[in-house]
Design brief:
6-stranded mixed beta sheet; 10 strands; binds adenosine-5'-triphosphate; binds magnesium ion
Length: about 250
């Protein structure tokens, strides 16, 4: 399988605290992967390292065969903008812009001529995410789940190769969380690689592979078989057992 990300022996410290201790991880193109682990174990730091959002102290991260540390700041910013989409726990949308403008904003800069096309694309994505009709709403006039869908639309505007999500369902109730996970699965089925951090066993159970982090290391992983038909409940039991086994 083709790898979209190959991280090798990644190390990262903040002051004296070793936050990533020799982490190696490979993500295959088309995978839907989740990262679990206790608070402070280094999940966000790892995601930032893999996406080039933050520098690493040692080791290597390759994206599509390109070594991230060898890229200039501009090249790295371009690569992130063109190939990666980011979804956070709380979408960082701007208060004085309506939902559609917020979605289109990141790809619009320097692209004013294509503005109409981008607006149409934004609208189409909103339709696909089930938030059509909310284009003109202010971000304070929609629900948390709707806001997160808008965040996903924004992440998809540039047709990314991979979507990174740092606890994308963390601020949502279980119904909205389920809807977001369903949307991410659909995006994944259409070919986009998805990598999310989650504390939610049910969310992790709906990905294909779960990495477990503890104290700056990947200590275990679970790979759900594509051949074996398993219910979400059965997978949740497996995730929970694994967490117990490795004491996280
Ligand atoms: N910018 C920073 N400066 C200093 N320390 C940091 C910084 N970012 C993270 N840390 C520390 O690194 C460790 C790992 O943080 P990280 O955010 O990766 O954890 P996490 O697994 O994502 O936790 P959570 O589940 O709470 O989000 C923590 O001890 C944190 O305090
Ligand atoms: Mg985190």
């Amino acid at each position: 399988m083709e790898k979209v990300i190959v991280g090798t022996n990644i190390r990262k410290s903040f002051g004296h605290e070793k936050v990533l201790r020799n982490v190696s991880v490979e993500i295959e193109t088309g995978e839907f992967i989740s990262i679990m682990g206790p608070s402070g174990s280094g999940k966000t730091t790892l995601m930032f390292a893999l996406s080039g959002m933050d520098e690493i102290d040692a080791g290597s991260v390759q994206f599509d065969g390109k070594e991230l540390v060898s890229l200039s700041d501009n090249a790295l910013a371009d690569l992130r903008r063109e190939q990666m989409g980011f979804v956070f726990q709380q979408p960082t949308l701007l208060k004085n812009l309506n939902l559609l403008d917020n979605i289109v904003l990141p790809v619009q800069k320097g692209n004013e001529k294509k503005s109409k096309m981008l607006m149409e694309k934004g609208q189409k994505l909103m339709d696909q995410m089930g938030i059509a009709g909310l284009e003109q709403r202010d971000i304070t006039q929609v629900s948390g789940g709707q806001l997160q869908r808008a965040g996903i639309c924004r992440a998809l505007m540039g047709n990314p190769k991979i979507i990174f999500g740092d606890e994308p369902t963390g601020a949502l109730n279980s119904k909205s969380a389920q809807e977001i996970i369903y949307i991410l699965s659909e995006i994944n089925k259409q070919g986009t690689t998805v990598c999310i951090v989650t504390h939610d066993v049910k969310v992790a159970a709906q990905t294909q592979r779960v990495l477990f982090m503890s104290d700056g290391q990947i200590v275990s992983q679970l790979h759900f078989s594509r051949e074996r038909v398993q219910s979400i409940d059965e997978r949740m039991v497996e995730v929970t057992e694994k967490m117990r086994e490795i004491d996280i």
